[in-house]
Specification:
346 residues, alpha/beta, Four Helix Bundle (Hemerythrin (Met), subunit A), Rossmann fold, 16 strands, globular
Length: 346
Protein backbone atom coordinates (compact mmCIF):
# COMPACT_ATOMS: atom_id res chain seq x y z
CA UNK A 1 0.00 0.00 0.00
CA UNK A 2 1.12 3.54 -0.76
CA UNK A 3 -1.38 5.10 1.63
CA UNK A 4 -2.27 4.81 5.30
CA UNK A 5 -5.97 4.60 6.07
CA UNK A 6 -5.40 5.47 9.75
CA UNK A 7 -2.26 7.18 11.00
CA UNK A 8 -0.96 9.03 14.05
CA UNK A 9 0.51 12.43 13.21
CA UNK A 10 1.41 15.39 15.43
CA UNK A 11 -0.39 13.91 18.44
CA UNK A 12 -3.65 13.47 16.54
CA UNK A 13 -5.20 10.71 14.47
CA UNK A 14 -5.57 11.26 10.74
CA UNK A 15 -7.96 9.36 8.49
CA UNK A 16 -8.51 9.13 4.75
CA UNK A 17 -11.93 10.69 4.13
CA UNK A 18 -13.54 7.77 2.33
CA UNK A 19 -16.68 9.71 1.46
CA UNK A 20 -14.92 11.56 -1.34
CA UNK A 21 -12.93 8.72 -2.92
CA UNK A 22 -12.13 8.04 -5.73
CA UNK A 23 -12.40 11.66 -6.88
CA UNK A 24 -10.05 12.92 -4.18
CA UNK A 25 -7.83 11.47 -1.47
CA UNK A 26 -7.71 13.75 1.54
CA UNK A 27 -6.92 13.21 5.21
CA UNK A 28 -9.07 14.57 8.00
CA UNK A 29 -7.56 15.23 11.41
CA UNK A 30 -9.25 14.16 14.63
CA UNK A 31 -8.09 16.10 17.69
CA UNK A 32 -10.81 15.06 20.11
CA UNK A 33 -13.04 12.06 20.82
CA UNK A 34 -15.96 13.98 19.32
CA UNK A 35 -14.05 14.23 16.01
CA UNK A 36 -13.51 10.46 16.06
CA UNK A 37 -17.18 9.76 16.87
CA UNK A 38 -18.26 11.98 13.97
CA UNK A 39 -15.75 10.37 11.60
CA UNK A 40 -17.04 6.88 12.42
CA UNK A 41 -20.73 7.81 12.39
CA UNK A 42 -20.55 9.70 9.09
CA UNK A 43 -18.32 7.03 7.50
CA UNK A 44 -15.28 9.17 6.90
CA UNK A 45 -13.66 5.98 8.17
CA UNK A 46 -15.38 2.61 7.68
CA UNK A 47 -14.58 -1.08 7.66
CA UNK A 48 -14.65 -2.98 10.95
CA UNK A 49 -10.87 -3.20 11.60
CA UNK A 50 -10.27 0.45 10.63
CA UNK A 51 -13.17 1.53 12.86
CA UNK A 52 -11.63 -0.44 15.72
CA UNK A 53 -8.22 1.17 15.29
CA UNK A 54 -9.78 4.63 15.07
CA UNK A 55 -11.88 3.92 18.15
CA UNK A 56 -8.77 2.95 20.12
CA UNK A 57 -7.15 6.27 19.31
CA UNK A 58 -10.47 7.98 20.06
CA UNK A 59 -10.37 6.68 23.64
CA UNK A 60 -6.94 8.18 24.13
CA UNK A 61 -7.99 11.50 22.61
CA UNK A 62 -10.99 11.50 24.94
CA UNK A 63 -8.95 11.07 28.12
CA UNK A 64 -5.59 12.67 27.40
CA UNK A 65 -6.68 16.00 28.89
CA UNK A 66 -8.40 14.38 31.86
CA UNK A 67 -7.63 16.22 35.10
CA UNK A 68 -8.32 13.16 37.26
CA UNK A 69 -5.78 12.63 40.03
CA UNK A 70 -6.70 9.07 40.99
CA UNK A 71 -7.70 5.96 39.07
CA UNK A 72 -11.31 5.94 40.26
CA UNK A 73 -11.94 9.38 38.82
CA UNK A 74 -9.88 8.62 35.72
CA UNK A 75 -11.84 5.44 35.03
CA UNK A 76 -15.06 7.45 35.03
CA UNK A 77 -13.61 9.56 32.21
CA UNK A 78 -12.56 6.41 30.35
CA UNK A 79 -16.00 4.82 30.64
CA UNK A 80 -17.71 8.02 29.55
CA UNK A 81 -15.51 8.23 26.45
CA UNK A 82 -16.03 4.55 25.61
CA UNK A 83 -19.80 4.83 25.94
CA UNK A 84 -19.79 7.89 23.69
CA UNK A 85 -17.66 6.26 20.98
CA UNK A 86 -19.54 2.96 21.19
CA UNK A 87 -22.78 4.68 20.18
CA UNK A 88 -21.32 5.78 16.84
CA UNK A 89 -21.98 2.52 14.95
CA UNK A 90 -23.45 -0.56 16.64
CA UNK A 91 -22.67 -3.50 14.34
CA UNK A 92 -18.88 -3.63 13.96
CA UNK A 93 -17.57 -5.88 16.74
CA UNK A 94 -14.01 -4.60 16.21
CA UNK A 95 -15.00 -1.19 17.57
CA UNK A 96 -16.17 -2.63 20.88
CA UNK A 97 -13.24 -5.04 21.01
CA UNK A 98 -10.85 -2.08 20.70
CA UNK A 99 -12.74 0.02 23.26
CA UNK A 100 -12.68 -2.89 25.72
CA UNK A 101 -8.99 -3.41 25.09
CA UNK A 102 -8.23 0.23 25.87
CA UNK A 103 -10.22 0.02 29.10
CA UNK A 104 -8.43 -3.17 30.09
CA UNK A 105 -4.93 -1.73 29.67
CA UNK A 106 -5.94 1.07 32.02
CA UNK A 107 -7.51 -1.30 34.52
CA UNK A 108 -4.52 -3.65 34.81
CA UNK A 109 -2.25 -0.65 35.38
CA UNK A 110 -4.49 1.11 37.90
CA UNK A 111 -1.72 1.24 40.51
CA UNK A 112 0.32 3.52 38.26
CA UNK A 113 -0.06 7.28 38.01
CA UNK A 114 -2.74 8.70 35.71
CA UNK A 115 0.01 10.21 33.57
CA UNK A 116 1.64 6.79 33.12
CA UNK A 117 -1.67 5.13 32.28
CA UNK A 118 -2.33 7.73 29.59
CA UNK A 119 1.03 6.91 27.99
CA UNK A 120 0.27 3.18 28.15
CA UNK A 121 -3.13 3.74 26.52
CA UNK A 122 -1.56 5.61 23.62
CA UNK A 123 0.97 2.79 23.24
CA UNK A 124 -1.93 0.32 23.19
CA UNK A 125 -3.65 2.22 20.38
CA UNK A 126 -0.38 2.13 18.43
CA UNK A 127 -0.24 -1.63 19.08
CA UNK A 128 -3.77 -2.16 17.74
CA UNK A 129 -2.69 -0.43 14.51
CA UNK A 130 0.58 -2.34 14.18
CA UNK A 131 -1.02 -5.70 14.92
CA UNK A 132 -3.69 -5.20 12.29
CA UNK A 133 -1.04 -4.90 9.62
CA UNK A 134 0.38 -8.30 10.56
CA UNK A 135 -3.11 -9.80 10.85
CA UNK A 136 -4.04 -8.70 7.33
CA UNK A 137 -0.92 -10.30 5.89
CA UNK A 138 -1.62 -13.56 7.72
CA UNK A 139 -5.24 -13.61 6.48
CA UNK A 140 -3.96 -13.05 2.96
CA UNK A 141 -1.52 -15.94 3.25
CA UNK A 142 -4.09 -18.40 4.59
CA UNK A 143 -6.71 -17.33 2.07
CA UNK A 144 -4.38 -17.47 -0.91
CA UNK A 145 -4.00 -21.23 -0.44
CA UNK A 146 -7.73 -21.63 -1.11
CA UNK A 147 -7.69 -19.89 -4.49
CA UNK A 148 -7.35 -22.03 -7.61
CA UNK A 149 -5.18 -20.87 -10.50
CA UNK A 150 -7.14 -19.00 -13.15
CA UNK A 151 -10.03 -18.20 -10.81
CA UNK A 152 -12.41 -15.30 -11.14
CA UNK A 153 -13.34 -13.93 -7.72
CA UNK A 154 -16.41 -11.94 -6.73
CA UNK A 155 -16.30 -9.54 -3.80
CA UNK A 156 -18.86 -7.27 -2.17
CA UNK A 157 -18.40 -3.91 -0.45
CA UNK A 158 -14.84 -2.96 0.53
CA UNK A 159 -12.63 -5.11 2.73
CA UNK A 160 -9.28 -3.82 1.55
CA UNK A 161 -6.61 -1.50 2.88
CA UNK A 162 -9.22 1.22 3.25
CA UNK A 163 -11.11 -0.99 5.73
CA UNK A 164 -8.02 -1.97 7.73
CA UNK A 165 -4.55 -0.72 8.62
CA UNK A 166 -2.94 -2.45 5.66
CA UNK A 167 -3.65 -4.84 2.79
CA UNK A 168 -7.18 -5.77 3.80
CA UNK A 169 -9.06 -8.92 4.71
CA UNK A 170 -11.05 -10.07 1.66
CA UNK A 171 -8.83 -7.97 -0.62
CA UNK A 172 -5.83 -9.18 1.37
CA UNK A 173 -6.61 -12.67 0.09
CA UNK A 174 -6.96 -11.32 -3.44
CA UNK A 175 -3.70 -9.37 -3.27
CA UNK A 176 -1.85 -12.41 -1.87
CA UNK A 177 -3.28 -14.63 -4.62
CA UNK A 178 -2.92 -12.02 -7.37
CA UNK A 179 -0.77 -14.23 -9.61
CA UNK A 180 -3.47 -16.95 -9.60
CA UNK A 181 -6.48 -14.71 -10.21
CA UNK A 182 -7.82 -14.08 -13.70
CA UNK A 183 -10.16 -11.26 -12.71
CA UNK A 184 -12.14 -9.84 -9.80
CA UNK A 185 -15.80 -8.94 -10.11
CA UNK A 186 -16.63 -5.96 -7.92
CA UNK A 187 -20.21 -5.48 -6.76
CA UNK A 188 -21.09 -1.78 -6.80
CA UNK A 189 -22.62 -2.11 -3.27
CA UNK A 190 -25.63 0.15 -3.06
CA UNK A 191 -26.51 2.47 -1.48
CA UNK A 192 -23.09 3.97 -0.61
CA UNK A 193 -21.25 2.32 -3.51
CA UNK A 194 -18.24 1.15 -1.51
CA UNK A 195 -17.45 -1.42 -4.18
CA UNK A 196 -17.66 1.02 -7.07
CA UNK A 197 -15.85 3.82 -5.28
CA UNK A 198 -13.37 2.09 -2.97
CA UNK A 199 -12.73 -1.53 -3.97
CA UNK A 200 -12.44 -0.64 -7.64
CA UNK A 201 -9.99 2.13 -6.72
CA UNK A 202 -7.83 -0.21 -4.63
CA UNK A 203 -7.75 -2.98 -7.23
CA UNK A 204 -6.88 -0.66 -10.10
CA UNK A 205 -4.09 0.93 -8.05
CA UNK A 206 -2.76 -2.58 -7.35
CA UNK A 207 -3.05 -3.51 -11.04
CA UNK A 208 -5.45 -6.37 -10.32
CA UNK A 209 -7.76 -7.09 -13.30
CA UNK A 210 -11.18 -5.92 -12.10
CA UNK A 211 -14.68 -5.66 -13.55
CA UNK A 212 -17.39 -3.56 -11.94
CA UNK A 213 -20.88 -5.07 -11.89
CA UNK A 214 -24.27 -3.97 -10.62
CA UNK A 215 -25.33 -5.72 -7.43
CA UNK A 216 -28.09 -7.62 -9.23
CA UNK A 217 -25.74 -9.20 -11.81
CA UNK A 218 -23.95 -11.61 -9.49
CA UNK A 219 -26.28 -14.62 -9.70
CA UNK A 220 -26.36 -14.38 -13.50
CA UNK A 221 -22.55 -14.53 -13.64
CA UNK A 222 -22.55 -17.51 -11.32
CA UNK A 223 -25.07 -19.33 -13.51
CA UNK A 224 -22.75 -18.83 -16.50
CA UNK A 225 -19.79 -20.32 -14.64
CA UNK A 226 -17.91 -17.03 -14.52
CA UNK A 227 -17.35 -16.93 -10.75
CA UNK A 228 -14.94 -19.33 -9.07
CA UNK A 229 -15.34 -18.10 -5.50
CA UNK A 230 -16.90 -15.31 -3.45
CA UNK A 231 -14.80 -13.58 -0.78
CA UNK A 232 -16.24 -10.95 1.57
CA UNK A 233 -15.31 -9.33 4.85
CA UNK A 234 -17.29 -9.25 8.11
CA UNK A 235 -18.40 -6.79 10.76
CA UNK A 236 -19.46 -9.24 13.47
CA UNK A 237 -19.48 -13.04 13.67
CA UNK A 238 -21.64 -14.93 16.18
CA UNK A 239 -20.27 -17.99 17.96
CA UNK A 240 -22.15 -20.31 15.56
CA UNK A 241 -20.62 -18.71 12.45
CA UNK A 242 -23.54 -16.46 11.48
CA UNK A 243 -21.90 -13.39 9.97
CA UNK A 244 -22.99 -9.78 9.61
CA UNK A 245 -21.58 -7.97 6.60
CA UNK A 246 -22.66 -5.22 4.23
CA UNK A 247 -26.25 -5.48 3.05
CA UNK A 248 -26.45 -7.73 0.01
CA UNK A 249 -23.99 -10.32 1.32
CA UNK A 250 -26.72 -12.76 2.34
CA UNK A 251 -28.19 -12.93 -1.17
CA UNK A 252 -24.71 -13.60 -2.59
CA UNK A 253 -24.26 -16.49 -0.17
CA UNK A 254 -27.60 -18.02 -1.20
CA UNK A 255 -26.72 -17.71 -4.88
CA UNK A 256 -23.26 -19.17 -4.32
CA UNK A 257 -24.71 -22.14 -2.41
CA UNK A 258 -27.18 -22.86 -5.21
CA UNK A 259 -24.42 -22.78 -7.83
CA UNK A 260 -21.93 -24.80 -5.71
CA UNK A 261 -19.47 -21.92 -5.51
CA UNK A 262 -17.23 -21.53 -2.43
CA UNK A 263 -18.27 -18.62 -0.24
CA UNK A 264 -15.52 -17.32 2.06
CA UNK A 265 -15.51 -14.73 4.82
CA UNK A 266 -12.13 -13.12 5.56
CA UNK A 267 -11.96 -11.61 9.02
CA UNK A 268 -9.67 -11.15 12.03
CA UNK A 269 -10.32 -12.99 15.27
CA UNK A 270 -11.37 -9.69 16.84
CA UNK A 271 -14.57 -9.76 14.77
CA UNK A 272 -15.91 -12.84 16.58
CA UNK A 273 -18.46 -12.13 19.28
CA UNK A 274 -18.67 -15.23 21.43
CA UNK A 275 -21.22 -13.60 23.71
CA UNK A 276 -23.99 -14.09 21.16
CA UNK A 277 -25.27 -17.49 20.10
CA UNK A 278 -26.55 -16.63 16.62
CA UNK A 279 -26.92 -13.89 14.05
CA UNK A 280 -30.37 -13.05 15.39
CA UNK A 281 -28.63 -11.26 18.25
CA UNK A 282 -26.33 -9.13 16.10
CA UNK A 283 -27.37 -5.45 16.27
CA UNK A 284 -28.04 -4.19 12.75
CA UNK A 285 -27.42 -0.52 12.10
CA UNK A 286 -30.23 1.37 10.38
CA UNK A 287 -29.05 4.38 8.41
CA UNK A 288 -30.96 7.35 7.04
CA UNK A 289 -33.36 7.08 4.08
CA UNK A 290 -31.51 9.73 2.08
CA UNK A 291 -28.62 7.34 1.38
CA UNK A 292 -31.03 5.21 -0.65
CA UNK A 293 -32.99 8.06 -2.21
CA UNK A 294 -30.04 10.21 -3.24
CA UNK A 295 -26.78 9.81 -5.14
CA UNK A 296 -24.23 12.62 -4.83
CA UNK A 297 -26.84 14.68 -3.04
CA UNK A 298 -29.43 14.44 -5.83
CA UNK A 299 -32.69 12.54 -5.64
CA UNK A 300 -32.93 9.49 -7.90
CA UNK A 301 -36.53 8.80 -6.89
CA UNK A 302 -39.60 10.73 -5.77
CA UNK A 303 -38.94 12.68 -2.57
CA UNK A 304 -41.93 11.36 -0.63
CA UNK A 305 -41.26 7.64 -1.03
CA UNK A 306 -40.26 5.80 2.12
CA UNK A 307 -37.00 3.85 2.03
CA UNK A 308 -35.46 1.05 4.09
CA UNK A 309 -31.76 1.29 4.76
CA UNK A 310 -30.26 -1.44 6.97
CA UNK A 311 -26.49 -1.19 6.62
CA UNK A 312 -25.89 -4.92 7.12
CA UNK A 313 -27.50 -8.33 6.76
CA UNK A 314 -26.65 -11.66 8.38
CA UNK A 315 -25.44 -14.68 6.45
CA UNK A 316 -26.10 -18.01 8.25
CA UNK A 317 -22.96 -19.96 9.04
CA UNK A 318 -24.26 -22.98 7.14
CA UNK A 319 -23.92 -21.00 3.89
CA UNK A 320 -20.25 -20.18 4.56
CA UNK A 321 -17.58 -22.48 3.14
CA UNK A 322 -14.92 -21.10 5.43
CA UNK A 323 -13.92 -18.16 7.60
CA UNK A 324 -10.36 -17.07 6.88
CA UNK A 325 -8.61 -15.70 9.97
CA UNK A 326 -5.04 -14.83 10.89
CA UNK A 327 -4.86 -18.17 12.75
CA UNK A 328 -6.12 -20.30 9.88
CA UNK A 329 -9.35 -21.23 8.13
CA UNK A 330 -12.49 -22.32 9.97
CA UNK A 331 -14.12 -24.65 7.44
CA UNK A 332 -17.91 -25.11 7.59
CA UNK A 333 -18.00 -22.90 10.68
CA UNK A 334 -19.87 -23.88 13.81
CA UNK A 335 -19.43 -23.18 17.52
CA UNK A 336 -17.00 -26.06 18.12
CA UNK A 337 -14.72 -25.20 15.19
CA UNK A 338 -14.73 -21.50 16.02
CA UNK A 339 -13.80 -22.18 19.64
CA UNK A 340 -10.94 -24.37 18.42
CA UNK A 341 -9.43 -21.56 16.34
CA UNK A 342 -9.94 -19.05 19.15
CA UNK A 343 -8.06 -21.33 21.54
CA UNK A 344 -4.99 -20.78 19.39
CA UNK A 345 -5.03 -17.18 20.58
CA UNK A 346 -5.11 -17.97 24.29
Amino acid sequence: MKYETVRWRKNNVELIDQRILPAEMKYVRCRHARDVELAIRTMKVRGAPAIGITGAYGVYLGIRNSRAKDFKSFEKDIKKTIKYLGASRPTARNLFWALERMHEVARINKERSVFSIKRLMLAEAHAVLAEDRKICRAIGKHGSALIEKGSSILTHCNAGGLATADYGTALGVIFAAKAKIRKVYVDETRPRLQGARLTAWELIKAKVPAVLICDNMAASLMAKGQVGAVIVGADRIACNGDTANKIGTYSLAIAAKYHNIPFYVASPISTFDMSISSGDQIPIEKRCESEVKKVNGKYITVKDIKAENPAFDVTPGKLITGIITEKGVVKNPNKRRIKKILNKCS
